[in-house]
Design brief:
This protein has five helices and no strands. With 160 residues, it is mostly helical. The protein is elongated and about 60 Å long.
Length: 160
């Protein structure tokens, strides 16, 4: 990050791409929350189908977001490359995201191939944890980007 010029074209594209990814993921989270909030008793199969569908959308959105964040020209890659002090935090954000992706895939597979009746309360609780963890991961990433910007330019991000 060049302190004299603000964000580069590549960095601006990274911010814009991150915003698009996060908007898509947030929409998928809302869809999952709506599906989980529907009545389940005596509607087990339609409820499960709706949750599986919403979880598939979330799975795809987070897969795309994760893939984009791993690209060599991504904002996280730029921070890792240009700000050695923040490399460990970048690795932490990426590791947390991988764990969340694994959780989403595991729950999705469990629902698509049920071996026993679904415990709706337990499933809602587990998916609520995933959603909370996604929000937490997003906040950690935002803090990291803000810290990187402030360190590079010694100014508030909203002034850029």
């Amino acid at each position: 990050m060049d302190e004299s010029q603000g964000f580069t074209t590549s960095q601006r594209a990274g911010l814009e791409g991150r915003s698009v990814d996060q908007d898509r993921t947030l929409a998928a989270i809302h869809e999952l929350e709506a599906a989980l909030g529907e009545a389940a008793p005596r509607r087990e199969q339609p409820w499960r189908d709706r949750v599986v569908e919403a979880l598939a959308v979330l799975d795809e959105a987070t897969a795309q977001e994760y893939q984009n964040a791993e690209e060599p020209d991504s904002l996280l890659s730029d921070i890792k490359r240009t700000q050695p002090r923040l490399r460990t935090r970048v690795r932490g954000v990426r590791a947390e995201y991988r764990q969340l992706r694994d959780s989403i895939a595991g729950i999705r597979q469990e629902l698509e191939e049920p071996s026993e009746p679904t415990d709706f309360g337990d499933l809602r609780q587990r998916l609520a944890w995933v959603v909370t963890a996604l929000h937490h991961q997003r906040a950690r990433e935002s803090d990291l980007i803000y810290d990187a910007y402030f360190e590079a330019f010694n100014t508030e991000l909203n002034e850029e």
